Every structure is written in structure tokens, then in C-alpha cells.
TrEMBL record:
SUPFAM superfamilies: TPR-like. InterPro entries: TPR-like_helical_dom_sf (IPR011990), TPR_rpt (IPR019734). Keywords: Lipoprotein, Signal, TPR repeat. PROSITE patterns: PROKAR_LIPOPROTEIN (PS51257), TPR (PS50005). Residues 1-23 form the signal peptide. It comes from the Bacteria. SMART domains: TPR. This is Lipoprotein.
């Protein structure tokens, strides 16, 4: 990142120097006529917009795109960048408003409409998201489109459609861990614990660091009465948390003795004080069932 930044700074310095030199030579033929758009064009030339979207702090990116888009309100790429930055910063209501501006632009794309649907889902507007996705032609086959279609189908409890959309989405990406986790959670909520377990396990093979999938895997196994941790990559803290999850699942299933043992193991495994597990164990030992 340091060398990349250095190269970017060099390019900017060179570009500014060249512009000044050219301006000095050509002043009689136009002077500063083009100065008004120099800053934005120079920024675009260095790819700063991409850097702000992918590497910068989300709030810094919001500030940058707000300033740039206010100076150039007709630039859809800057409005798009602002909408994406709002999503990254967790400002979902603001993202929805900005995406609405983007899709009203004459140069708006189908991907913009899909991103608008994504922002609507983040605010809980499932019907609005569904309407946006319905307006996208079926020939627009992208990973994100089908992932969102699956989530909407889930919200409507249209399980057959959801499975079809999830399957399609998995086939359209080289990094399916997230969508596999979502699909597994869908199966979990339907009570299909065995299939959910398979999907969570697949998600972990693609991304061993995805703790959400690991925890969901334990929930699926616990629902089947499987009270042992499967073989998978996990830190000591993660292992303690997973044992705790499994212990709670056992207790809720009525297997209190097994649950207490798992919670004790979680406390012993955790490298630090595991307050949540300690409280639960004390509650169990005091015959308090409301965990």
C-alpha cells in the first residue's frame, strides 16, 4: 500500500507540474479556462475514486464523494460512489436516498438498480427491494442479483425459489462462502438441520475465518443432538465460544447435564475470563432455566 501511495503521489505531482508548465506556455491562448474541472479530472486520472471506495475509511469516503458530487452533480459515477460509501459506512437510509438519485439518471445501469435493491434490503424494505429486482430483466444474470433474489424469496417463505436462486448465485462466484452461509441459515430456519450443516461446512471450506458460519454449523449440529465440535480451523477463543454455543443448544434441547459440561469446557478453554459462560453456568447450578 505504501509503494502504491508513493506512485500515486508522484503521478499527481507530475500531473500538476505538467499542467502548470503547459498553462504558462499557452496562457495567451486560453489562460485558466480549463482550470475549473482540472481537480476532478486529475483525481479521476489517479484512480482516487477507486481507492476511496476500496481502501479508505468509509466515513472519509463519504466526505470525499459528497464534496465531489456536489461540485459535479451531473456525474453519475460520483453519485454512485457516494451511495456505495454510505453503504460501507452503515448509513443505509442515506444510501437508499442516493441510490434513488442514481437510478433516475439517464446513464443508470441495471447493476445500479440491483445495488438500490441491496440498500433497500438493508433498511428492511423487502417489498421495495422485490419491486426493484422485478424490474431487472431476467437476462441480467449476476451473482449479486441472484443472491438478493434468494434473500427476498426467503423473506416471502418461497423456499423452492430461494433454493434455486441460492444455487445459481453459488455458481456465479469464486467466493461463495457468504451466500452458502445465508443458504444454510435459510435451511436452519426451516428446520432442515442436516442440509444446513452441509452448507455451513461448505462455507467454511471456502473461508475458514468465517466465524458466523462456524457458529451456525454448531447450532445445526446441536439441533440434531450432535454435541461434539467437528474438525475445523479455530482459534482458542473461537473454540471456547463454539463450545458455549453448543452447551446452550444442549440445555435448550433438554440435555442439561451435557450442556453444563460443555459450558464448563468453554470456560476452561477460553484464554481469558469468559463472563457470559460463567453467568450461564451459575444460573444452571442455581436451577435458573431462563438463560
Amino acid at each position: 500500500m505504501t509503494s502504491l501511495s508513493s506512485r500515486k503521489i508522484c503521478v499527481i505531482t507530475f500531473a500538476v507540474a505538467s499542467t502548470l508548465a503547459l498553462s504558462a506556455c499557452q496562457k495567451p491562448f486560453g489562460g485558466d479556462v480549463r482550470r475549473a474541472d482540472t481537480s476532478v479530472n486529475a483525481i479521476d486520472g489517479t484512480g482516487l475514486s477507486d481507492i476511496m471506495l476500496n481502501a479508505a475509511d468509509p466515513n472519509e469516503a463519504v466526505s470525499y464523494f459528497m464534496r465531489a458530487s456536489s461540485e459535479n452533480p451531473d456525474r453519475i459515477d460520483l453519485q454512485r460512489g457516494l451511495a456505495m460509501s454510505f453503504v460501507r459506512a452503515g448509513q443505509n437510509e442515506a444510501a437508499v436516498k442516493t441510490w434513488k438519485v442514481v437510478i433516475a439518471h439517464e446513464d443508470a445501469t441495471l447493476d445500479d438498480r440491483v445495488d438500490y435493491a441491496d440498500a433497500l434490503i438493508r433498511t428492511g424494505d423487502w417489498k421495495g427491494a422485490e419491486a426493484q429486482l422485478d424490474s431487472v430483466p431476467p437476462t441480467h444474470e449476476t451473482y449479486k442479483r441472484y443472491r438478493l433474489e434468494a434473500m427476498v424469496a426467503d423473506s416471502n417463505q418461497e423456499w423452492k425459489n430461494a433454493d434455486s436462486f441460492y444455487q445459481t448465485a453459488v455458481g456465479l462466484t469464486t467466493k461463495p462462502s457468504g451466500v452458502l452461509n445465508n443458504w444454510g441459515y435459510s435451511k436452519l430456519t426451516r428446520g432442515d438441520y442436516k442440509e444446513a450443516e452441509k452448507l455451513f461446512a461448505q462455507a467454511i471450506t471456502y473461508d475458514p475465518s468465517l466465524f458466523t458460519a462456524k457458529n451456525n454449523l454448531i447450532l445445526a449440529r446441536g439441533a440434531q443432538g450432535k454435541y461434539d465440535l467437528p474438525v475445523m480451523e479455530a482459534t482458542q477463543v473461537e473454540r471456547a465460544q463454539l463450545l458455549y454455543t453448543l452447551g446452550l443448544a444442549a440445555v435448550k434441547a433438554g440435555d442439561v447435564t451435557i450442556g453444563k459440561g460443555l459450558i464448563k469446557e468453554a470456560i476452561d478453554t477460553h484464554p481469558q475470563h469468559f463472563e457470559a459462560a460463567v453467568r450461564s453456568l451459575r444460573a444452571l447450578e442455581s436451577n435458573v432455566s431462563n438463560l
